[in-house]
Amino acid sequence: MGALLITESEPTPRSGRLPRAERRKQLLAAAQSVFIANGYHAAAMDDIASEAGVSKPVLYQHFPGKLELYLALIDEQAEALVGAIGRALSETTDNQERVHGVLSTFFNFVEGAEGGSPGAFRLIFETDLGNDPAVRERVDRVSSEIMHAVADTVSADTGLDRVRAELLAMVLTGGAQIVARWWLNADRPIPKDEAVGLVESLQWRGISNFPLFVLEQQRSL
Question: Domain range for residue 208?
Fold first, then answer.
Protein backbone atom coordinates (compact mmCIF):
# COMPACT_ATOMS: atom_id res chain seq x y z
CA MET A 1 0.00 0.00 0.00
CA GLY A 2 1.53 3.31 -1.03
CA ALA A 3 2.25 6.04 1.44
CA LEU A 4 -0.44 8.64 1.92
CA LEU A 5 0.66 11.93 0.39
CA ILE A 6 -0.34 14.91 2.48
CA THR A 7 -0.27 18.35 0.86
CA GLU A 8 -0.73 21.74 2.55
CA SER A 9 -2.97 24.27 0.93
CA GLU A 10 -2.31 28.03 0.97
CA PRO A 11 -3.89 29.67 4.01
CA THR A 12 -6.85 31.83 3.12
CA PRO A 13 -7.60 35.06 4.96
CA ARG A 14 -10.57 35.01 7.26
CA SER A 15 -13.67 36.55 5.73
CA GLY A 16 -14.05 40.23 6.58
CA ARG A 17 -10.62 40.53 8.19
CA LEU A 18 -9.11 43.98 7.72
CA PRO A 19 -5.67 45.32 8.63
CA ARG A 20 -5.84 47.15 11.95
CA ALA A 21 -5.39 50.62 10.44
CA GLU A 22 -8.16 50.05 7.91
CA ARG A 23 -10.48 48.64 10.56
CA ARG A 24 -9.84 51.67 12.76
CA LYS A 25 -10.64 53.98 9.86
CA GLN A 26 -13.86 52.06 9.20
CA LEU A 27 -14.90 52.26 12.86
CA LEU A 28 -14.16 55.99 13.05
CA ALA A 29 -16.28 56.63 9.96
CA ALA A 30 -19.17 54.66 11.44
CA ALA A 31 -18.84 56.42 14.79
CA GLN A 32 -18.78 59.82 13.14
CA SER A 33 -22.00 59.06 11.30
CA VAL A 34 -23.72 57.96 14.52
CA PHE A 35 -22.41 60.85 16.64
CA ILE A 36 -23.42 63.45 14.06
CA ALA A 37 -26.89 61.94 13.69
CA ASN A 38 -27.60 61.34 17.39
CA GLY A 39 -25.21 63.47 19.42
CA TYR A 40 -22.77 62.02 21.91
CA HIS A 41 -25.16 61.23 24.72
CA ALA A 42 -27.77 59.47 22.58
CA ALA A 43 -25.22 57.48 20.58
CA ALA A 44 -24.61 53.90 21.73
CA MET A 45 -21.70 51.58 21.09
CA ASP A 46 -24.24 49.03 19.79
CA ASP A 47 -25.33 51.57 17.17
CA ILE A 48 -21.74 52.26 16.13
CA ALA A 49 -20.88 48.57 15.85
CA SER A 50 -24.02 48.00 13.78
CA GLU A 51 -23.20 50.95 11.51
CA ALA A 52 -19.71 49.53 10.97
CA GLY A 53 -21.01 46.00 10.40
CA VAL A 54 -18.91 44.50 13.18
CA SER A 55 -19.55 42.90 16.54
CA LYS A 56 -19.28 45.02 19.67
CA PRO A 57 -16.20 43.06 20.89
CA VAL A 58 -14.40 44.07 17.67
CA LEU A 59 -15.24 47.71 18.38
CA TYR A 60 -13.90 47.40 21.94
CA GLN A 61 -10.67 45.87 20.65
CA HIS A 62 -9.90 49.25 19.08
CA PHE A 63 -11.56 51.68 21.49
CA PRO A 64 -12.08 50.94 25.21
CA GLY A 65 -15.16 53.14 25.42
CA LYS A 66 -17.41 55.72 23.77
CA LEU A 67 -15.46 58.70 25.07
CA GLU A 68 -12.16 57.39 23.67
CA LEU A 69 -13.85 56.90 20.31
CA TYR A 70 -15.24 60.44 20.39
CA LEU A 71 -11.84 61.90 21.32
CA ALA A 72 -10.20 60.03 18.45
CA LEU A 73 -12.71 61.61 16.07
CA ILE A 74 -12.02 65.10 17.41
CA ASP A 75 -8.29 64.51 16.98
CA GLU A 76 -8.82 63.34 13.40
CA GLN A 77 -10.92 66.34 12.42
CA ALA A 78 -8.69 68.80 14.30
CA GLU A 79 -5.64 67.50 12.46
CA ALA A 80 -7.40 67.93 9.12
CA LEU A 81 -8.44 71.52 9.89
CA VAL A 82 -5.11 72.64 11.34
CA GLY A 83 -3.27 71.11 8.39
CA ALA A 84 -5.52 72.88 5.89
CA ILE A 85 -5.05 76.25 7.62
CA GLY A 86 -1.29 75.72 7.61
CA ARG A 87 -1.31 75.07 3.88
CA ALA A 88 -3.42 78.17 3.23
CA LEU A 89 -0.80 80.28 5.04
CA SER A 90 2.30 78.65 3.58
CA GLU A 91 1.34 78.26 -0.07
CA THR A 92 1.56 81.98 -0.82
CA THR A 93 3.36 85.11 0.37
CA ASP A 94 0.50 87.34 -0.78
CA ASN A 95 -1.33 88.36 2.38
CA GLN A 96 -4.68 88.99 0.73
CA GLU A 97 -4.50 85.49 -0.71
CA ARG A 98 -3.74 84.22 2.79
CA VAL A 99 -6.86 85.91 4.16
CA HIS A 100 -8.83 84.37 1.32
CA GLY A 101 -7.26 80.97 1.95
CA VAL A 102 -8.03 80.90 5.67
CA LEU A 103 -11.64 81.94 5.07
CA SER A 104 -12.07 79.40 2.28
CA THR A 105 -10.64 76.69 4.52
CA PHE A 106 -13.25 77.29 7.20
CA PHE A 107 -16.09 77.38 4.68
CA ASN A 108 -14.83 74.22 2.99
CA PHE A 109 -14.37 72.48 6.32
CA VAL A 110 -17.93 73.06 7.50
CA GLU A 111 -19.10 71.72 4.13
CA GLY A 112 -17.05 68.57 4.56
CA ALA A 113 -14.05 69.35 2.37
CA GLU A 114 -10.46 70.09 3.48
CA GLY A 115 -10.06 66.59 4.90
CA GLY A 116 -13.26 66.76 6.91
CA SER A 117 -16.65 65.31 6.08
CA PRO A 118 -20.20 66.69 6.18
CA GLY A 119 -21.23 67.50 9.74
CA ALA A 120 -17.85 66.62 11.21
CA PHE A 121 -17.14 70.23 12.20
CA ARG A 122 -19.88 69.85 14.82
CA LEU A 123 -17.65 67.42 16.70
CA ILE A 124 -15.28 70.33 17.37
CA PHE A 125 -17.34 73.49 17.32
CA GLU A 126 -20.82 72.35 18.38
CA THR A 127 -20.17 69.34 20.61
CA ASP A 128 -22.72 68.42 23.26
CA LEU A 129 -19.84 67.18 25.42
CA GLY A 130 -18.15 70.53 25.82
CA ASN A 131 -18.00 70.31 29.61
CA ASP A 132 -15.86 67.17 29.59
CA PRO A 133 -12.25 68.21 30.42
CA ALA A 134 -10.67 66.01 27.73
CA VAL A 135 -13.04 67.30 25.04
CA ARG A 136 -12.67 70.91 26.18
CA GLU A 137 -8.87 70.59 26.10
CA ARG A 138 -8.94 69.35 22.52
CA VAL A 139 -11.38 72.01 21.32
CA ASP A 140 -9.31 74.74 22.97
CA ARG A 141 -6.12 73.29 21.53
CA VAL A 142 -7.31 73.29 17.92
CA SER A 143 -8.53 76.89 18.24
CA SER A 144 -5.23 77.88 19.83
CA GLU A 145 -3.11 76.15 17.17
CA ILE A 146 -4.99 77.89 14.39
CA MET A 147 -4.81 81.27 16.12
CA HIS A 148 -1.07 80.94 16.74
CA ALA A 149 -0.41 79.95 13.12
CA VAL A 150 -2.22 83.06 11.89
CA ALA A 151 -0.60 85.22 14.59
CA ASP A 152 2.85 84.18 13.34
CA THR A 153 2.02 85.67 9.94
CA VAL A 154 0.32 88.75 11.37
CA SER A 155 3.26 89.48 13.65
CA ALA A 156 5.82 89.04 10.87
CA ASP A 157 3.90 91.10 8.33
CA THR A 158 2.57 93.96 10.47
CA GLY A 159 5.42 94.58 12.87
CA LEU A 160 3.05 94.23 15.82
CA ASP A 161 4.15 92.62 19.07
CA ARG A 162 2.98 89.10 19.88
CA VAL A 163 0.03 90.02 22.11
CA ARG A 164 -1.45 92.41 19.55
CA ALA A 165 -0.82 89.96 16.72
CA GLU A 166 -2.69 87.25 18.65
CA LEU A 167 -5.58 89.65 19.28
CA LEU A 168 -5.93 90.29 15.55
CA ALA A 169 -5.50 86.60 14.77
CA MET A 170 -8.40 85.79 17.12
CA VAL A 171 -10.59 88.24 15.22
CA LEU A 172 -9.60 86.74 11.88
CA THR A 173 -9.93 83.07 12.79
CA GLY A 174 -12.81 83.36 15.25
CA GLY A 175 -14.80 85.45 12.80
CA ALA A 176 -14.08 83.05 9.96
CA GLN A 177 -15.23 80.05 11.97
CA ILE A 178 -18.42 81.69 13.22
CA VAL A 179 -19.51 83.11 9.89
CA ALA A 180 -18.83 79.83 8.07
CA ARG A 181 -20.98 77.95 10.58
CA TRP A 182 -23.73 80.57 10.32
CA TRP A 183 -23.66 80.33 6.53
CA LEU A 184 -24.04 76.56 6.60
CA ASN A 185 -26.71 76.52 9.33
CA ALA A 186 -28.65 79.19 7.40
CA ASP A 187 -28.75 76.72 4.49
CA ARG A 188 -26.19 78.55 2.33
CA PRO A 189 -28.27 81.71 1.70
CA ILE A 190 -25.72 83.00 -0.83
CA PRO A 191 -23.12 81.17 -2.95
CA LYS A 192 -20.00 80.16 -1.02
CA ASP A 193 -17.62 82.16 -3.22
CA GLU A 194 -19.69 85.29 -2.68
CA ALA A 195 -19.82 84.74 1.07
CA VAL A 196 -16.06 84.24 1.24
CA GLY A 197 -15.52 87.33 -0.91
CA LEU A 198 -17.68 89.55 1.29
CA VAL A 199 -15.95 88.54 4.51
CA GLU A 200 -12.54 88.70 2.83
CA SER A 201 -13.23 92.27 1.74
CA LEU A 202 -14.14 93.26 5.30
CA GLN A 203 -11.14 91.54 6.92
CA TRP A 204 -8.65 92.70 4.32
CA ARG A 205 -9.79 96.34 4.58
CA GLY A 206 -8.94 96.14 8.27
CA ILE A 207 -5.70 94.19 8.34
CA SER A 208 -4.24 95.89 5.26
CA ASN A 209 -4.13 99.22 7.10
CA PHE A 210 -1.25 98.11 9.31
CA PRO A 211 2.13 99.66 8.33
CA LEU A 212 3.96 96.70 6.78
CA PHE A 213 0.89 95.67 4.86
CA VAL A 214 0.64 99.18 3.44
CA LEU A 215 4.31 99.05 2.38
CA GLU A 216 3.71 95.66 0.77
CA GLN A 217 0.77 97.06 -1.19
CA GLN A 218 2.83 100.07 -2.32
CA ARG A 219 5.68 97.83 -3.50
CA SER A 220 3.24 95.83 -5.59
CA LEU A 221 2.02 98.93 -7.45
Answer: 76-220
Distance, CA of 212 to CA of 221 (rounded, Å): 15
Domain match, 111 and 198 both? yes
Q: What is the CATH number of the domain that holds 37?
A: 1.10.10.60
State pLDDT tens for residues 171-195: 999 999 999 999 999 999 999 999 9
CATH number at residue 124: 1.10.357
Q: How many CA atoms lie within 13 A of 53 on its CB side?
A: 7
Q: What is the pLDDT of residues 24-39, one digit of tens each?
A: 999 999 999 999 888 8
Q: What is the CA radius of gyration of the chain?
A: 23
Q: For residue 170, which amino acid is it?
A: M
Residue among 200, 157, 153, 156 at smallest CA distance from 176: 200
